């Protein structure tokens, strides 16, 4: 066991920021669209933010609040206490290191859970791509990038394998959902075994794995300043293979990605088939990260960048126009006419107002909003999904005004979305007849449990990052304090059950690695907000569709 359990402050090196401010409208050869916008957090450097948070010599400090909203004051003594290592930090690092997986003597990832009580391993002894992301960020923030580099290279190697489910061959760009290392003590050999969906529940390929891989590659590059990995021919090829799957032309009339149930963190049947917000937000972020890292030294590279730019332009408009919901937009949908025909239609997806669930009218505050779960012909899934909305903020898919509105919603509906353990993966829970139809009577996704309204501690790092980016660290601090009151005592569970998240999940594994890593990342980001640079993208200041915060679908 490595004896180094403390935290080391390591600055994030912004080495590829020039590409992130790329003028996409120039690539599209179209007039630049602009909107009047007030200054946002994105226009401040992360180093400035870190310095302002660390000013404990003053009686109080004030955070930046976009839109002219008043700041908040926190006593300096409170700031000092919040940055002192919590007793459970050492335990978290020790547990995280116990989860390390080695291949030929080199660490290549972390297993999903180290449950000391359960005898049924299932697939919790595997390294999941999505699960490893918070672990990777924790190691990067602690100045230990080698494991992240090893992971990126090993999963890239696995991408090159032939992938089959029964007699069907999967696309070349598909990344594995997970892999495990088989140790042969007799022959003294290690063997990698990957799962591309053929062993998963429902036999669904992981759409999100490739996106997380690209996002993590950028995080590694930003943290270390090492451009050589992202610019290597293997990584360039790997990114292009992933994007080829997503940018292929077909029968689609929308720029969003059509997905099956169970293709992301919500890996069981939960009615998220179609165009789920989680996949669309990750897709958007992966496109922007790839745009910053892809080389244009040949015709193929230039063509790929041009296709990304066109897709981003369309995807930005589509998501901000049709997925966004606030009080005014809800009122507009409530008053929609149906059966409209032609390009002048206001109700473009022919959504029936009577299909709006009763709960959303009470849930929607006067000030606040969010990206809804799904939009497709005659269907809107009004459920809140935490991961998609947090990624929308971090990737700048959400405008600065929309980002603030999402944070307003979290504050206004704290009991519903946070409760006693952050954070609800989805809200509200589906139950009774709807649960039977949507989940197929799934005994794991009963109401207020698991993916069906369960509370997942791993989401703590995402909401903390979103809070810091929007200048609202007090929300993150409050959420972290809630987690610290229970997580260690309860054995780092995978998820919690109940409307308020009061109970350890009925099938939750203990010492769940991403619960541990999510807490560490949240703590380190709050201590040193400059770490946010590796997982956050600034708004593209040159490509701004004319979207107002409460715009109707006729924009």
Automatic annotation (TrEMBL):
An annotated Gene Ontology molecular function: sucrose alpha-glucosidase activity
Catalytic activity from the UniProt record: Hydrolysis of terminal non-reducing beta-D-fructofuranoside residues in beta-D-fructofuranosides
Gene Ontology terms describing biological process: sucrose catabolic process
A Pfam cross-reference name: Glyco_hydro_100
Gene3D superfamilies: 1.50.10.10
Class of enzymatic activity (EC top level): hydrolase
EC number(s) recorded for this UniProt protein: 3.2.1.26
InterPro entries (alphabetical): 6-hairpin_glycosidase_sf (IPR008928), 6hp_glycosidase-like_sf (IPR012341), Glyco_hydro_100 (IPR024746)
SUPFAM superfamilies on file: Six-hairpin glycosidases (SSF48208)
Top-level taxon in the UniProt lineage: Eukaryota
Alphabetical UniProt keywords: Carbohydrate metabolism, Glycosidase, Hydrolase
PANTHER family in UniProt: ALKALINE_NEUTRAL INVERTASE D-RELATED (PTHR31916:SF15), PTHR31916
Function: Invertase that cleaves sucrose into glucose and fructose.
Family classification: Belongs to the glycosyl hydrolase 100 family.
Protein name: Alkaline/neutral invertase
Organism of provenance: Lupinus luteus (European yellow lupine)
Taxon lineage: Eukaryota, Viridiplantae, Streptophyta, Embryophyta, Tracheophyta
């Amino acid at each position: 066991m490595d004896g180094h359990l403390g935290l080391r402050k390591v600055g994030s090196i912004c080495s590829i920021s020039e590409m992130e401010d790329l003028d996409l409208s120039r690539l599209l050869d179209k007039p630049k669209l602009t909107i009047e916008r007030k200054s946002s957090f994105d226009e401040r450097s992360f180093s400035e933010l870190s310095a302002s948070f660390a000013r404990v010599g003053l009686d109080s400090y004030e955070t930046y609040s976009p839109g002219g909203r008043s700041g908040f004051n926190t006593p300096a003594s409170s700031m000092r206490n919040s940055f002192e290592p919590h007793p459970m930090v050492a335990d978290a690092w020790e547990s995280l290191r116990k989860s390390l997986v080695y291949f030929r003597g080199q660490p290549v990832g972390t297993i999903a859970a180290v449950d000391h009580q359960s005898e049924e391993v299932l697939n919790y002894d595997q390294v999941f791509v999505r699960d490893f992301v918070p672990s990777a960020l924790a190691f990067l923030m602690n100045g230990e990038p080698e494991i992240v580099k090893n992971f990126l290279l090993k999963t890239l190697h696995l991408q090159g394998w032939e992938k089959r489910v029964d007699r069907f061959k999967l696309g070349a760009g598909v990344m594995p959902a997970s892999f495990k290392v088989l140790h042969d003590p007799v022959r003294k050999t290690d063997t990698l075994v990957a799962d591309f969906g053929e062993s998963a529940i429902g036999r669904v390929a992981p759409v999100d794995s490739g996106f997380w891989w690209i996002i993590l590659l950028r995080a590694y590059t930003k943290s270390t300043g090492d451009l050589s990995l992202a610019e290597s021919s293997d990584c360039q090829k790997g990114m292009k293979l992933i994007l080829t799957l997503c940018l292929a032309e077909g029968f689609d009339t929308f720029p969003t990605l059509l997905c099956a149930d169970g293709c992301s963190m919500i890996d069981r049947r939960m009615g998220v088939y179609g165009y789920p917000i989680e996949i669309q937000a990750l897709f958007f972020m992966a496109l922007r990260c790839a745009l910053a890292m892809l080389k244009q030294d040949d015709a193929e590279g230039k063509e790929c960048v041009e296709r990304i730019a066109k897709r981003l332009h369309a995807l930005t408009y589509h998501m901000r126009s049709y997925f966004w919901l606030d009080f005014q937009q809800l009122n507009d949908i409530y008053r929609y006419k149906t059966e409209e025909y032609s390009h002048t239609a206001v109700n473009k997806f022919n959504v029936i107002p009577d299909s709006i669930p009763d709960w959303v009218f009470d849930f929607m505050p006067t000030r606040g909003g969010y990206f809804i779960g799904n939009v497709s012909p005659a269907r809107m899934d009004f459920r809140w999904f935490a991961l998609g909305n947090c990624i929308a903020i971090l990737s700048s898919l959400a405008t600065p005004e929309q980002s603030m509105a999402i944070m307003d919603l979290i504050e206004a509906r704290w009991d519903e979305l946070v409760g006693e353990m952050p954070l609800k993966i989805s809200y509200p829970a589906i139950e009774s007849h709807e649960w039977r139809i949507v989940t197929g009577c799934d005994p794991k996704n009963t109401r207020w449990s698991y993916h069906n309204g369960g509370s997942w501690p791993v989401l703590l790092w995402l909401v903390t990052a979103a809070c810091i980016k929007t200048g609202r660290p007090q929300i993150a601090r409050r959420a972290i304090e809630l987690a610290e009151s229970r997580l260690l005592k309860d054995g780092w569970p995978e998820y919690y059950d109940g409307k308020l998240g009061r109970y350890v999940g009925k099938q939750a594994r203990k010492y769940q690695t991403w619960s541990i890593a999510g807490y560490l990342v949240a703590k380190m980001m709050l201590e040193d907000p400059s770490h946010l640079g590796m997982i956050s993208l600034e708004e593209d200041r040159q490509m701004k569709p004319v979207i107002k915060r409460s715009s109707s679908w006729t924009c």
